[in-house]
Amino acid sequence: GKEKWPRGDEKVWKEGSRSVNTDVSSVTKSIVNHVQTSLARQAYNLDNLGAYQAAALSVRDDLILNWNETQMHYTRKAPKRAYYLSLEFLMGRTFDNALLNLGLKDQYREGVTKLGFNMEDLLEQERDAALGNGGLGRLAACYLDSSASQELPVWGYGLRYQYGIFQQLISPEGQQLEQPDPWLAGGENPWELPRLDVSYEVRFYGTAERLPDGRALWQGGQEVLAVAYDVMVPGCYTKNTNNLRLWESKPKRGFDLNSFNAGDYEHAVESSNSAAAITSVLYPNDHTTFGKELRLKQQYFWTAASLADIVRRFKNIGKPFSEFPDYVAIQLNDTHPTLAIPELMRILIDEEEIPWGKAWDIVTNTVFYTNHTVLPEALEKWPVPLMEHLLPRHMQIIYDINLFFLQAVEKKFPGDRDRLARMSLIEEGFPKQVRMAHLACIGSRKVNGVAELHSDLVRTTILKDFVEFEGQSKFSNVTNGITPRRWLDQCNPELSALISKTLKVDKSVWLKDLDRLKGLLPYAEDAEFRKEWAAIKQRNKERLAHHVETTLGLTVNTNAMFDVQIKRLHEYKRQTLNILGVIHRYLTLKQMSDAERKKVNPRVVFFAGKAAPGYYIAKLTIRLIVNAARIINADPDTRNLLTVYFLPDYSVSLAEVLIPSSDISQHISTAGTEASGTSNMKFCLNGGLLVGTVDGANIEIAEAVGENNVFFFGHLTPAVEDLRYQHMYHPVPVEEKCPALAKVLDKISGGMFGDGGVYEPLLNTIRQNDYYLITEDFDSYIGALEMVDQAYLDKEEWIKKSIRTTANMGKFSSDRAILEYAESFWSIEPVKVT
Ligand code: AZC
Fold first, then answer.
1. Of 82, 91, 88, which is closest to residue 151 (Cα–Cα)?
2. 782 inside domain
């Protein structure tokens, strides 16, 4: 039946309601309106930034309408929902993406032009929302885009950091310098809705007193307010607009009036500062954990606020808690939100008075855990004394979970004390530590890795005991994906247009059904099509060259092969192998005669990426790249054939310019260390070929596009452990093992790129343990790059490879991945807003 109109005259409401802009004149009207009222400016004094702000506010209005309708619709239908808890959402810019998803790009472009501005200039005004470190955070952003596009009722929950990932500067000596990223400083952020009415109190410290009925009383300590900011996430060509809710911390009361009145002004301000500090800064460490109290505070603050919100929404439906898992699925993006497990237990037991066994059933049917790395240094552990101090009730719950769990293990494997020690949630030592991956695993319904190989490694290494205890079926794989909206249509509009024209299908269809790219395969044989394909790649190279010229003042040779490695700096990702290979190439060129050099294909090598501020070896790698680039680029003998650039301050927006321009990209981790990788997918989707090790999603990409279209090298995962063992106990000098590499190391030590002594600590990691097996893979790496040179000589064949690569990348759409989560884990269904 039809609902009764809630208040006033329905007709008046309907007449007053605004609908989404659809034509140029409504777009310009709304922009001018915002210029005049929201910005209090006029045509006379409007600059690009102002014009961007007005246009953004106009798009925001459209998004709000859809967002509002979507949330109303979800509330009415009360479907099962999924919540994606991620400490990082690396969203990048929103303006262009919102226009594309609303299908209003052309209207806005025309409108903006009529108002005397250039759309490209306006797009450049927006600052990236960089609330993430790298792959894990960007994956979360792609999954939000796909959830909305597939009309799935999924919300994201994260933190609204005042400072995102730091801005990277490179000093003249090649040192990385970090500067804060006050991304919100430019005034209001048009892409969020402050929801000052949605707030929760979150407690820290204090005491937890167990009561005879199994509950506990957690009191005292510090209470902090979590306030919601909602970020609208529009689906592509659908009304569905999902929500990303970010929490900001605020002091519960502005000031501690007691200390204030006692004349202790400083103490009063301090405690309000300490509350605000919780969401102040994103931790810039990728793949490491430090056990810092503030980080644990962030994790609890965010999970507690999110769960309070989820539980409140569930209670509004009016169902008993036994049905909680029928309405709620919670996905843990790595172990960062693992406290959701003891926190949900606390709510159910202490607040809802549900007995332990029932509460545990509810939790373990609601929570799901994705692991993103098997690197030991990245597996989170928290010191028990810290946890006990900050979260006394949760520590009790964790001990109880552990007790019941170990009893069950003991029952299945009687007398196996080693096994109990290995599986325990508590690692013995000084201090004892809580193993978050173990807690996440036993508290979840499903556990998954992010590519086939990685999921196998999870099952056979870090969680082997748990598979033996709980059985295989709990452990599965969802190979990562990327959104083709941002990573093809938006970043490579010419290629997108060519694809639509060739497939004779509107992009609104193939962008949401990426397997349709297969239809491009026959055109690999079409010379005219190849010409267009290659011309677009060329223009994308020129676009990058233009960007480098305007931002860095450097001229790039666009007739060269573009070779790109962009990702966080890490020893396991082996940027070092790449730069050593570049230097080897340089030395080889130097030795050639002029006649020999004439036959060489010119190459431009791009690096970009940030190192964690405390990661000394990674920063030294940047220094080596920058200084090698300085010498190599200045050498008149070779500079037509080889140049190297380190582009500072890598970001989502920079990636959008780099990725479409690549001929090859490098994904060269030591086998078994890169869980998946997602930039590999982005490059291949844009027709760049892949040079890589047999690792992560590289393997599945090769299966999809054909192994003859990728350049693989290096040892395989099963060999790695033995090789490391040999390096430890039977070391062979680099000169013997790999003379070509030894020569490169000698040149660096000898001062070819400035004071050689500076690089010794980096070079010694290779000469000594060589944990990441540079010596073992170097020759095969150089061999692969020679194969690339060979293949590039046959231009037509190369373009065919490029086309076939794009055509076979359908599997790697994040739509496929999110539907796998929705169907096999969360059991949620699309809820279309009509
Ligand atoms: C990354 C993995 O290193 C990368 O291989 C993967 O593609 C990405 O997650 C998305 O799954 N991991 C992280 O960024 N961080 C951690 C702590 O694993």
1. 82
2. yes
Is residue 518, in this structure, part of any structural domain at all?
A: no
Cα–Cα nearest to 90, from 54, 166, 146, 142? 142
pLDDT tens column, 216-242: 999 999 999 999 999 999 999 999 999
The active-site residue out of 238, 621, 678, 693 is 678
Number of Cβ within 10 Å of residue 758's Cβ equals 17
Task: Return the CA Rg of the chain.
Answer: 28
| Catalytic annotation present for 800 | no
C-beta neighbour count of 319 within 10 angstroms: 13
Put residue 206 in one of left, alpha, beta given phi > 0 → left and psi -120 to 50 → alpha: left
Burial of residue 316 (number of CB atoms within 10 Å: 0-12, 13-18, 19+): exposed
CA of 341 to the centre of ligand 1 (A): 22
Same domain? 530 vs 393: no
Query: In this structure, are strands 446-449 and 81-85 parallel, antiparallel, or unpaired?
Result: unpaired
Say whether both 458 and 581 belong to one domain: no
799 lies in which domain range? Answer: 523-812
293 and 224 in one domain? yes
DSSP conformational letter for 524: G
Name the DSSP class of 128: P
Model confidence at 276, in pLDDT bands (50, 70, 90)? confident
* 815 in Cβ contact with 148 (< 8 Å): no
CA–centroid distance, residue 480 to ligand 1 (Å): 10
Q: What is the pLDDT of residues 649-670, one digit of tens each?
A: 999 999 999 999 999 999 999 9
Domain co-membership, 683 together with 737: yes
- Type and span of the H or E element at 774: helix 774-793
Q: Are 468 and 584 in a shared domain?
A: no
| Closest C-alpha to 833, from 51, 243, 206 | 243
Residue 373 has pLDDT above 90, yes or no: yes
Contact 828, 82 (CB under 8 A): yes
Our CA dihedral for 192, 655, 532, 690, rounded to 10 degrees, sits at -130
Atom of ligand 1 nearest to the CA of 375: 18
Residue 814 has pLDDT above 70, yes or no: yes
Whether residue 470 is found in the same domain as residue 401? yes
Q: How many domains does the chain have?
A: 2
The alpha helices in 318-391, defined as continuous H runs, are 324-327, 340-346, 356-366, 384-390
Q: Note whether 444 and 543 are same-domain residues.
A: no
- Among residues 480, 503, 532, the one where a domain terminates is 480
Residue 369 to residue 443: CA distance in whole angstroms: 9
334 lines ligand 1 (CB under 6 A): yes
Other beta carbons within 10 angstroms of residue 61's beta carbon come to 16
Assess if residue 579 is contained within a domain: yes
Instruction: Report CA(746)–ligand 1 centroid distance (Å).
Output: 34
**Does residue 623 form part of some domain?**
yes
Active site residue 568: yes
Give whole-number Cα distances, 612 to 45, 284, 378, in Å: 42, 6, 13
- Please tell me the distance from the alpha carbon of residue 128 to that of residue 333, in angstroms, as a whole number: 22
Assess whether 476 and 534 both reside in one domain: no
| Chain segment 465-479, per-residue pLDDT in tens | 999 999 999 999 999
Among candidate residues 480, 515, 543, the one where a domain is terminated: 480
CATH number of the domain encompassing residue 559: 3.40.50.2000
Collapsed DSSP state (helix, strand, coil) of residue 7: coil
